[in-house]
Amino acid sequence: MKVWLLLGLLLVHEALEDVTGQHPPKSKSPKEPGENRIKPTNKKVKPKIPKMKDRDSADSPLKMQSIMVQVMDKGRFQKAAATLSLTAGQTLELRCKGSKIGWSYPAYLDTFKDSRLSVKQSERYSQLTLLNSTAADTGEFSCWGQLCTGYICRKDETKTGSTYIFFTEKGELFVPSPSYFDIVYLNPDRQAVVPCRVTVLSAKVTLHREFPAKEIPANGTDIVYDMKRGFVYLQPHFDHQGVVYCKAEAGGKSQISVKYQLLYAEVPSGPPSTTILASSNKVQSGDDISVLCTALGEPDIEVEFRWIYPGQKGEEIDWRMPMSVKRVNTTLPSAN
Q1: Residue 321 carries which DSSP code?
Q2: Can the peptide bond before residue 212 be classed as cis, meaning omega within 30 degrees of 0?
Q3: Do the Cβ atoms of 151 and 308 come closer than 8 Å?
Q4: What is the pLDDT of residues 134-168, one digit of tens each?
Q5: DSSP states of 67-121 as a string?
């Protein structure tokens, strides 16, 4: 009897140890109909790093927008190519989109205030028209939008357009020069240009020294040829002095340019000096007054005159003639 009692107590003791070693059962609530049976996770989501194109656009370069088109016949338009070749005598019409447009064209047209050239600004675009074109009109035509605050305007670099136009004329391989002999100054601190430009894109152009007679190679190191500028001396030095000329060949014909005297001038370059003088410091109401502005500086330097006076918008005049003294005179309207 005692044996059975001890055996029973031993079994009860083992059962109690099994119960105390187990975890309490998890309470499960019944799922509602339509309840999502996927358990939510506590995983951390990595933040999405934006791609380069999604980042602040301030770090990226400004997107250029061409605003120039060429007006064709019958009211058609086409995008102005980087270079155009037109026959002399044709009418050139270029149009640039914008309410305030600035223009640049060959200095030959601006210097002599050619009546064949006209620029008209409308509400949505500006149009440049050149009548009875000649070989001398060969050059770059460009336009740009203007951002203005009052009388002061600056160029909008994002809205521009340009084209270099060759006006081919019979018997003229070179762009005509106003003189038969020209002077090119060689400065050691900047490039020098022998401006023998051609009117035919396919023309072969070479540079020659008059004495001793020989061809000067454009080797790409000291001298290069740029169809928009001419022969460019990259690093002028004393040995480049002398008289030179250019020779062009195209369509089985050849032509020699005017001669250029290359003079070496080892003088540091500097800004021009200016003076302004009025015809009178005191006028009566209704009288006219004349103002003369003079710029004195190195030859072949670009000088820009900007006039600002009461009651009128600023007028910009760009002078690029090879002169050591440049003057511009304006007569103001009747004084009030």
Answers
A1: -
A2: yes
A3: yes
A4: 999 999 999 999 998 887 888 999 999 999 999 99
A5: -EEEE-GGG-EEEPPSEEEEETTPPEEEEEESSSEEEE--HHHHHTT-TTEEEEE
Pairing of strands 125-130, 92-97: antiparallel
Q: Encoding tokens for residue 281?
A: 């410091």
From CA 252, how far away is CA 52, in angstroms rounded? 55
Rounded to a whole number, what is the largest CA-CA distance in the chain?
A: 148
3-state secondary structure of 15: helix
Q: Are 90 and 169 in contact (CB under 8 A)?
A: no
Report which of 307, 288, 204 is spatially closest to residue 248, judged by C-alpha positions: 204
Per-residue pLDDT tens digits for 246-277: 999 998 899 999 999 999 887 666 677 788 88
The pTM (predicted TM-score) of the whole model is: 0.63
Cβ count near 86 (within 10 Å): 17
Cβ atoms of residues 93 and 101 within 8 Å: no
Task: Report the distance separating Cα 139 and Cα 84, nearest Å.
Answer: 10
Q: Which residues contact 249 (CB under 8 A, 6 or more apart)?
A: 173, 203, 204
